[in-house]
Write a structure and sequence with these properties.
By secondary structure, the protein is an alpha/beta fold. It has nine helices and 13 strands.
């Protein structure tokens, strides 16, 4: 069966898959990134994992993988195949495409940004299927965005398009890792809600999922924490709607796992804030934490299609 190798590299874990020509997940595996061992060890783990996937495909699908795609966090030079910088992995200027191609016997390799890869998958085979314009916003450790236009993801002139998490929504607010204060991700990411709820509850182990449960049970402190995050998120999203005018707004990541505990107040808060803007459909992501891996597979298939038509 025809297939490609796909890897989604995160700060703590890696997801890998063999992906069919129709985007189907044919085989999946996971392992720790091992960032505590240093950047060189992380790179070695990625290359080793890809090689193991190649061997599995050869043994169980009857033929070698035709290409590979890898999605990584941070700043990515997709055109030149360089993983430029990722704070949570500790690497700089890693020629990841070349390293993978060498290990995998010279097959074509596509390198992409993790959130944009997830957005590509959601747009083509997930919650954004059929939408000509969409915005994918995962709410996890941080907040980022992927801008979908006619089945492709807009990377921007410098590969930085969609970084909605660094829109300032509360000037003078919490300090962000980017150096500014009051960025959206300091207030409305899953990690931000976890911090706020841990403080409010007096429990350092409390997290965003615990906050959502407390909201459902009617806890007033939890409701304040949750609503603060929803309000900040709505402010950031309305800015994005004003600039991009998407038809569909797809919300994913850990915070979206709260379901209607998030989506009911969020839809209401966005609707309260729009004036002339057209309200998009606000929907949960459909692919869960497999989106990045499936997106990496789609990048690999796109690369093959480009080479055929070139």
């Amino acid at each position: 069966m025809r297939h490609v190798i796909a890897l989604d590299v995160g700060g703590t874990g890696m997801k890998a898959a063999l992906v069919g020509a129709d985007g189907a997940l044919l085989y999946g595996a996971r392992r720790a990134t091992g960032r505590d061992r240093g950047a060189d060890a992380v790179v070695a783990s990625i290359v080793d994992f890809a090689d193991e996937l190649r061997a599995h495909g050869q043994a169980h699908l009857g033929r070698p993988a035709e290409a590979a795609g890898v999605a990584v966090p941070g700043i990515v030079d997709a055109e030149n195949g360089i993983a430029v910088y990722a704070a949570n992995l500790g690497w700089r200027d890693v020629p990841l495409r070349a390293l993978l191609a060498e290990r995998l016997g010279g097959v074509p390799v596509a390198l992409g940004h993790d959130v944009r890869a997830g957005g590509l998958a959601e747009g083509r085979i997930g919650a954004g299927r059929g939408a000509d314009r969409f915005l994918f916003v995962p709410l996890g450790t941080g907040i980022a965005g992927a801008i979908g236009i006619d089945g492709t993801i807009e990377a921007g002139a410098h590969g930085c398009a969609g970084e909605i998490g660094h829109v300032v929504v509360r000037p003078g607010g919490p300090e962000c890792g980017c150096g500014r204060r009051g960025c959206l991700e300091t207030l409305a990411s899953a990690s931000a809600v976890s911090r706020a709820w841990a403080d409010a509850a007096g429990d350092p182990d409390a997290d965003a999922a615990d906050c959502a449960k407390a909201v459902d049970s009617g806890d007033p402190a939890a409701r304040r924490v949750w609503q603060d995050a929803v309000d900040a998120l709505a402010d950031g999203l309305v800015t994005a709607l004003t600039l991009l005018d998407p038809r569909t707004l797809i919300i994913g990541g850990g915070l979206a796992e709260a379901g209607e505990t998030l989506f009911t107040p969020l839809r209401a808060a966005v609707e309260e804030r729009v004036t002339f803007q057209q309200l998009p459909d606000i929907v949960p992501a459909a692919l869960g934490d497999t989106a990045g891996c499936l997106g990496a597979g789609l990048l690999a298939w796109d690369l093959l299609a480009t080479e055929v038509t070139a």
